[in-house]
Amino acid sequence: MKRANNDRKYNGTSSHRPDNLKFRREEAKERQAAYDKLAPSTKLMLLDSRLGAGVGAKKQRAKLNALLEGKKDQ
C-alpha cells in the first residue's frame, strides 16, 4: 500500500487545520459548562462508571468528597 500524500497539514499553512482548533475549543467549553452544572455526587458516579469504583482520579475524588462532606456538615 503506497501512501503518496500522508501530509495531514492544512493547505496554505504550516500547522494543522486552524478551523478545527476553534471548533474543538468551543466544544470543550460546552462540555466543561455541562460538567460544572452537575452535583458532586453525580460527578463521583460518573467517575465510578467510567473508571471503576474507587479506581483512579484520586485528586478529583478527594475534591468531590471534600465538597460532599462540607455539604453534610451544614
Sum up the structure in keywords:
single chain; 74 residues; mainly alpha; 3 helices
What does this structure look like?
The protein has one domain. It contains 3 helices and no strands. The chain has helices at 18-36, 40-51, 58-73. Helix 2 packs antiparallel against helix 3 (58-73). The longest helix is centred in the middle third of the chain and has 19 residues, at 18-36. The mean pLDDT is 81.
Overall structural domain count: 1
Number of strands: 0
Alpha plus pi helix count: 3
Estimate percent helicity: 55-70%
State which percent range the strand residues make up: under 5%
Biggest sheet features: none
Overall form: elongated
Question: End-to-end distance, in Å?
Answer: 66 Å
Structural class based on helices, strands and sheet pairing:
mainly alpha
Radius of gyration: 20 Å
Query: Which whole number gives the mean pLDDT?
Result: 81
Low-confidence stretches: none
* Helix/strand order, N-terminal first: HHH
Q: Mind sketching the topology for me?
A:
Elements: H1 18-36, H2 40-51, H3 58-73
Helix pairs in contact: 2-3
